[in-house]
TrEMBL record:
Superkingdom of origin organism: Eukaryota
Any coiled-coil regions, as ranges: none
Gene3D superfamilies registered for this protein in UniProt: NAD(P)-binding Rossmann-like Domain (3.40.50.720), UDP-galactose 4-epimerase, domain 1 (3.90.25.10)
InterPro entries: NAD(P)-bd_dom_sf, NmrA-type_oxidoreductase
Organism: Aspergillus chevalieri
UniProt-recorded name of the protein: NmrA-like domain-containing protein
Matching SUPFAM superfamilies: NAD(P)-binding Rossmann-fold domains (SSF51735)
Amino acid sequence: MLISYASVEVEYRFEVHKTAINAARSSSVSHIFYSSLAFAGNLSPTSVASVMGTHLLTEQYLSSLPAQGPATYTAIREGLYSEPFPVYTAWFDIHNPVEEITTPHSGDGPGIRWAKTDELGEATAKMIVSYVQSSGDFLWLNKAVLLSGPQVLSLKETADILGRVTRKDVRIKEISAIEYAELPFKDKYWYRGVNLLNDYTLCWEAFRRRETAVVSPLLGEILGKEPGDFETTVRGLLH
């Protein structure tokens, strides 16, 4: 199982992934599962979101493996993850809530199908078990698959849920991407003297393009139950 390397540099991050993949092949690993991210719509090979860049490069490299030898792969696009929702809601804190979420987005239109992290992990584990128990007929061999939440919520609907959970009247305030990149939490995105929040604002452009608004039934099918909804997950974070 290749877990995505945590870095904000697309090319460097990809090279680390590539090195790990090549090392696995050299060690006679026959199949590689890769934890990708669920931007890029319905398994599209392109995305406007900078955070998806390394994942797409890694998926592309994995897809070349079968032609190079016996190694096979499964790329699992997961999310978007429910628990780290603050990343997309101006670092909204449910334990210290505010009434206004400033984002480079109006809150209307296409949204996000949130998915619970532990359920994504459980489904991934079950896929690995399925591969081990298969006899050459693994369903997701040499494929990218999408594990998504059960419902698409706009950013406004997401804010409404945060308001219900925290008993606040929470609203979205749209600002420009340039203004967003200068908000106080920009320090979280500084890397080698560069404010990477400028690039990160492309996530909201991806939302506008419906990149995170595709619902796949696969997560529920693998779990054998309806995946947890966003509001229930957020309420659980309060305790």
